[in-house]
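agent: user wants the full assembly modeled, not chains individually. Plan: 1) parse entity lines 2) check alphabet per entity 3) run joint structure prediction 4) return tokens. Steps 1-2 passed, two entities, 1127 residues total. Proceeding.
--- entities ---
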Amino acid sequence: MKVLLSWMRRFAPIEGDPAELAAAMTDLGMVVESVDTVGATWNGIVVAEVLGLAPHPEADRIQLVQVDAGDGQPLQICCGAFNMAVGDLVPLATLGTVMPSGLEIARRKLRGEWSNGMLCSATELEAGSDASGIMILEPGLPVGQPLADALGADTDVLFDLDIEGNRPDALSIIGVTRDLAARLKVPFTIPAPAVPEGATRTADRASVRIDDGELCLRFGLRVLDGLTVGLSPTWLVQRLERSGMRSINTIVDISNYVMLELGQPNHTYDLGLVPDGALIVRRGRDGETMTTLDDAKRTITPADGVIANAADEPIGLAGVMGGASTEISDGTTSVLLEAAIWDRMSIAKTSRRLGLRSEASMRYERGVDPDGVERALDRFAELAVELCGATVASGRVVADGNRPTRSPITVRVSRVNLLLNTALTAGEIAGYLNPIGFEATPTSDNELEVTIPSWRPDSSAEIDVVEEVGRHHGYSRSGRRVPTSAQGGRLTPVQQARRRIRRSLLGAGFSEAMPNPFLAPGDLERAGLDQAAISLVNPLVVEESVLRTSLLPGLLKAVAHNQSHRARTIRLYELGRVFGPSDDELPDERELMAAVEAGFSPDDAGPGRTAAEAAVRLVHRIAGELGLAGLTIVNRARPGLHPTRSGEVMFRGRPIGEVGEVDPEVLERYDVAGRVAWVQLAVEPIVAALETIPRYKPLSRFPSSDIDLAFTVADAVAATDVARTLRKAGAGLLRSLDLFDVFRSPQLGEGRRSLAYSLRFQADDHTLTDAEIAQARQSCIDAVVKAHQAELR
Amino acid sequence: MIDDLTLLTFESETAAAITGAASASALRDVEHAALGRDSRLVAARKQLGSLDPEQRRTVGKVLNDVRERLTAAVAARHDELARSERTAQLAAERLDLTEVPDSVVVGHAHVVTQTWELLEDIFVGLGFQVAEGPEVETDWHNFDALNIPADHPARDGFDTIYVNHGSPGSTLLRTHTSPVQIRAMLAQKPPIYVIAPGRVYRRDTADATHMPVFHQIEGLVIDRGISLADLAGTIEAFTEAYFGTGFSSRLRPNYFPFTEPSAEFDIQRPDGSWLELGGCGMVHPNVLRAGGVDPEEWSGFAFGFGIDRLALMKFGVDDLRELYANDVRLLTQF
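--- prediction returned ---
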């Protein structure tokens, strides 16, 4: 909302440094985004009279203009515009003038001819948007007079305010001024429009019937006759253009001026095109159409409000745009003026559906003062008389739909003081409220009766009034204190676990990615995963229309992106949520941790260099760092993973994730080169494990004995199964077990390999005898041979 | 029997041989020859018995002195040789440490995570616990309970993404972390001091300052007698803790449906310039009621702001999209 200081002064004697005024408005919640002085840059610009025009001998796009700048002497100016005639008054920027654009005017030669200044267009003076030619001034102005004096245009200050949704009143000059005047403690008054009324009665010439009182809260009309539509005077043009609106003609300009000043949108009909001046306000009907002012044919729905004529044909879209059929034209002699109050949601829906957002619809969506209808009609009439020579029919026609009523509410002083940390009395509170139209009367030491003003549709309860008191008292005066939390701050086990998992992955050299959780249709299928997933109702683009069920597609895309930038080894992890269908109130949402390592050659080059092994090592690393004792891996083909190089991660008897190599075919589909290691674990079971604090086990003070055992076992037997058998057989004496060698050779037989384990035996309470060690060794051998058809080597 | 002159010659010759021994083994040979079992010194000692007691004592002492001096000389030479051998060995082991490649693989946490964790730590220090909620939410938690009923125009401002789950329009990707306020109130009785960092979603086209998926942090305090002063004090304490000394904060009136009075909080930098950081206010009585909290008994404040923007500022990244491109060249910078 752009607000001119001169305009505010129509309603209140607002004085002071513009920067301080801006600070006051910001402190009231009307954030001033910029403060600009307008008009001040007219220093050096004078009214000049064109004495003669001659072609430039060397250039046909420039002419030589002789002007009188006030001293009666001809002064030569080179000018690129041709719209002036001898005798015209024009603005002349004299030598040394600094133009609003910053350009300094100097004497200079153009193609051999001197130019002693510059004639200005309205745009160059920032006095309008007309850049087509030199601004031609009204005849009769004194030649040589400074332009600012001649036009009566003083310097002005323009505040650009950011108005919040709860302050529709501040979308008007009076609303902003009322608030600021209250803060500055100066009187605020809205002058009553002076409307000289003619002989005919409005009620005889216009009528309205409201068929839907929910749609239309109020509807007011006035009739104006004998208008001359012309160009607006400079003061009006300047106010509008400085406020960000274009000047069109007097009638459009008055309409906009009234809306900006009072916040009441309004509309004009050519009365001659409205039979009997009769209007009907109703909902639209399916199948109806009408042509709006922008010459677009609009389809109407029952959600829209329409204004119809006596024949029940729509001639206006309520609060959004008028119709072409009753548009004011050069032949218009009588005007029917409308000022109405509409249901906010209806306007919002219609303007959204049609993509028509205007200054009017924006104000209607936020809420227009229902009690301001009469004032707006009168203000319009007043200006129409003044600027268009209109005659005003006497009286107004105003119909009410569901006009809001205002009933007083009770506000407790104690509540105000508790929430604002103040010690205000009922009288002081009333002192803040009354100037902004909240009619407050103390009824006891602790209570006030407050009637909320009609222009504040956002306010209805005690808490709304507390905010107003706070705003006008000043938030900064509430003081500061840090409340003491009785419970103490801490992270939950989940949050602590997340940090430990992250630390582990960072230590392993993995960096954190944050891929898009939205997938394209087909992304899951391309990743070899189940396609059952939750889709978005209103995705921005179809490529982002499915909620991920796995972190795999996102991380593969990240790998592909980095490979396209020639990254070799890529280690990325993510801690993020995935979503799956469920029958519950909300989808099945769970947090996963996944890590991906790319850069493995497809030919398994190097011992222990397969992606799958790297993935398994990472799982063990995480398990080790987090203390997930008993975590195991079971060889099992997993969707999206290499069928013979993938497995399920088991913890406490249930699967918590997967590990292995990504299926080469999936990699191909995702444009990923080489082989890729993959780990994905659910966070929640890990958290549960971390809540178990490990208990101290006494350290044995007795010597330990190491033995090595190597078995030939079929490939189908998992090494972890052999290890489990050894642990069980070693029972109480086996302290540690390491698989230190695996090898295959033709001598061992097809489909078999050797697994070599190092075992350490130790007792807590004595030194093991050779016999004990021998017996333990034999139990281990026997168990493995029996359980796994193994041979001791 | 050795005479004095012979002894003198022996000692000087042996001393020269010790000094001249070039290696541990040469030294061992000299030592053996001069002081060993078959040496002349030992032989001379064996003859002491043939001397009279007086002479025996004198000669014996001379022989002992010579022996001690030579033994000491051997030890000294031995140390000397050991030292130079060690020096030679170390010299032979020379490594050019700058040959070691500096391509150490270090993982880097995402800048959003780094900022997130720092914020958690600061608020934990201020006595807050950290609450969480689902990213896919009900429209009730995301809107209705936060005093944004179905027809409220504020709903349009959120550019909500809905998901196909349950009845149409019932389930959405949370547009802010504020629904965690409701979940926190329903999960625990006051007093409540929580923050809720989390991922949020808006139907926004990605540009330098917007992403459809981004992160916010929410704060909620509910206790007896909580006022605007507690809000201002908490914001100020956070400002100092996060931004450092010389930074301060201010509240100015604003509008949010879920708080009243509502405020925007700005941070003032030491150079006097302002940064609009987030929204805050006293929890609206309707929101307290939705969370099962009696607004007559309890009052509270809430605040919220974006994590991503703080991360951008902290590390000087100028385009939000860069944070989500997952380019290792960027990720490993921080």
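agent: reporting back. Strands of chain B lie at 129-130, 136-138, 161-162, 171-173, 192-201, 213-223, 248-256, 259-268, 274-283, 299-306. Chain B touches chain A through 83 residues (CB under 8 Å).
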